[in-house]
Write a structure and sequence with these properties.
141 residues; alpha+beta; four-stranded antiparallel beta sheet; 4 strands; binds ribavirin triphosphate; binds magnesium ion
């Protein structure tokens, strides 16, 4: 298995629930290491640019509104198969369809406020990590 990096975001709903620690603990227990992290309040431009692939989708405006509704925690996770492993820990986009024991099943209520983001491919991970972090902000161990 290849060592990979992926971008994770703990979204405003999970931050508001005081679940930052419990969510990061799941990553660490699964063997992923946090090699970069910061808390940010996104503005419309930063959130809209991040989700640019969804610009034409009917839910885009609500998505940007939600992502700017409160602080988020962005992290780079590193480990074996990190991209797929993180998506597995997150569960399905719609928490009602998320497998029991996944982050979205346990912390999210709706498809709009679904607790976490994770990169969906190696190409997305590379773009998304560079979108939030400079090379000097990433600290591999
Ligand atoms: P994310 O990018 O946030 O990790 O979520 P994802 O890959 O599981 O889902 P994606 O298709 O990339 O959609 C991004 C976010 O848009 C909202 N969404 N709403 N109402 C809808 O049909 C719908 N579809 C997607 C979700 O909040 C999703 O996380
Ligand atoms: Mg996505």
């Amino acid at each position: 298995m290849a060592t990979e990096r992926t971008l994770s975001i703990i979204k405003p709903d999970a931050v508001a629930k005081n679940a930052i620690g419990e969510i990061i603990a799941r990553f660490e227990k699964a063997g992923l290491q946090v090699v970069a992290a910061k808390m940010l309040k996104l503005d419309d431009d930063k959130a809209g640019g991040f989700y640019a692939e969804h610009k034409e989708r009917p839910f885009f405006k609500d998505l940007v509104g939600f992502m700017t509704s409160g602080p988020v925690v962005v992290q780079v996770l590193e480990g074996d198969d990190a991209i797929a492993k993180n998506r597995e820990l997150m569960g399905a986009t719609n928490p009602k369809e998320a497998a029991p024991g996944t982050i979205r099943a346990d912390f999210a209520e709706t498809i709009d406020a679904n607790a976490v983001h994770g990169s969906d491919s190696a190409e997305s991970a590379e773009r998304e990590i560079a979108y939030f972090f400079g090379a000097d902000e990433i600290c591999p161990r």
